[in-house]
Amino acid sequence: MKKLLLLAYEFPPMTSGGSFRPWKFANHLSHFGIEVTVITPQREQKLNDSDLNFSLEYTEPVEKLAFEKLYHSFYLNVLDPEAKKWKKPLVKKLEELMQLKAFDAMMVTAPPFSISSLAVSISKRYNLPLIVDLRDAWSQWIMTPYASLLHYQILRRIEAKVFNNAAAIISVTEQLCQNFRELHPSNAGKIHYVPNAYEEPLQIAEQPLQFEPKTDQNPFIIGYVGSFYFEPYQRDLIFNPWWKKKPWQYLQYVPHKEDWKYRSPYYFFKAIRLLLDKRPDLNAKIQIKFIGTAFQWLKDMIQLFNLENHVELLGKKNHSESLLFQKNCDALLLTSVKVIGGKDYCIAGKSFEYLSMEKPILGFLTEGSQKDFLEKTGLGVLCDPDDTERSAQTIENLLDFGTVLTPQANHIKDFSINITTEKLARIILKLTQTQ
């Protein structure tokens, strides 16, 4: 049985979206002849490890850095500080662990991206082939500008070093893999598509699903779970011309533009407002509920479209509460970033939970991975965020007439945890077959 060492800075009981992917892989790789040992920082809560199919090792808590605010500085650094904070307790734990176990390979999951650089040095020290799991676009993830072209070039060199030293790189969408291949052509052959997944078992309907229209006494609930990854100030820094910025921002640089306003509910709210202005009789039929942090910009957006009586912000919930919330909704909302001159490369982790609910997924989606994914599931009710009138009509039809959706079982099953883990297992076993 091959032995894999997995470094996961984000891991349950953390509830961040990125924590569940390594947990699912660790828990299922044993089915394919791979024994996993996970190392993660010690936190206030710990998992109940009695039912786990992997070994779980905690390091000491991450260390607080002297002058830590400087490490978060937009101008003084290009990487997050998490590797610096974790390095000492991680190295100490590894020294203990390596005396007890012999590993065949190691894997690291990012973000935080600095951990991947730390993993390169560890893999070299212990002579282990390294698999790097990139859940986001790293140097091409443009939520805010780089402080300068020099900052971008430095990060590109750090990224290239990780790619050059990795035995394999895996990522979550085909578009993201293609972007990485174009960015690192000399490493294109080692980049593999291993998507996120839903947990088994998922009962997929064998026949069309009928969703009836709602009444005033039984309103239509549209729900959303998680973050929007949007900050108006950072968006302005991307799209404002240099002469509208402050002097110390003149040198800011973006390799391409991504409009994260499309990831927010702005265009969804805009369509709802148009619909309610056109059809006041629908006021009592629509309820919109969000689970997640209630940012001030979100409250301002709700007020901008005069939707205070229709939108309820429920705050953060644990995972079981989130699943129950989704089951009680009539439709679930998805949005996606708009990549100017390109395609969206993300599929939100919540998409896979949404599938298990077998409900209409209302997608305000741009061209790219999220839209392609939802179209193929057969569970999507798609809206063009740039066509407000047609989007409002789509929602109106959903409220007035309901809908019939036909789940595409063959496509949905491609995202089961057994199938995606098998893809990862084949990569691991190929890397270790001579060991």
Give an overview in words.
- The strands form four sheets. The chain has a seven-stranded parallel β-sheet, sandwiched between helices.
- The longest helix has 17 residues, at 82-98.
- The chain has 15 helices and 17 strands.
- It folds into two domains: 2-197 and 416-432, Rossmann fold (3-Layer(aba) Sandwich), CATH 3.40.50; 209-407, Rossmann fold.
- The protein has helices at residues 17-28, 68-71, 82-98, 114-126, 149-165, 174-183, 232-239, 266-278, 296-304, 319-327, 350-357, 369-377, 388-401, 409-413, 417-432, and strands spanning 2-7, 34-41, 55-59, 105-110, 130-134, 168-171, 191-193, 209-211, 220-225, 258-259, 286-291, 311-313, 331-335, 338-339, 361-364, 380-383, 403-405.
- It has 435 residues and is α/β, with parallel strands linked by helices.
- Helices cover 38% and strands 17% of the residues.
- Helix 3 (82-98) runs parallel beside helix 4 and helix 8 (266-278) crosses helix 13 (388-401).
Strand content: 15-25%
Count of helix runs:
15
Name of the CATH superfamily of the largest domain: Glycogen Phosphorylase B
Residue stretches low in confidence (pLDDT < 50, at least 5 long) are: none
CATH architecture of the largest domain: 3-Layer(aba) Sandwich
* Radius of gyration over C-alpha positions, nearest whole angstrom: 23 Å
Distance between the termini: 11 Å
Our count of domains comes out at 2
Classify the secondary structure makeup into a structural class: alpha/beta
Residues in helices, as a percent range: 25-40%
Overall body shape:
globular
Number of strands: 17
CATH names the topology of the largest domain as Rossmann fold
Q: Give the averaged pLDDT, no decimals.
A: 92
Spatial strand order of the main sheet? 3-2-1-4-5-6-7
CATH class of the largest domain: Alpha Beta
Largest sheet: 7 strands, parallel
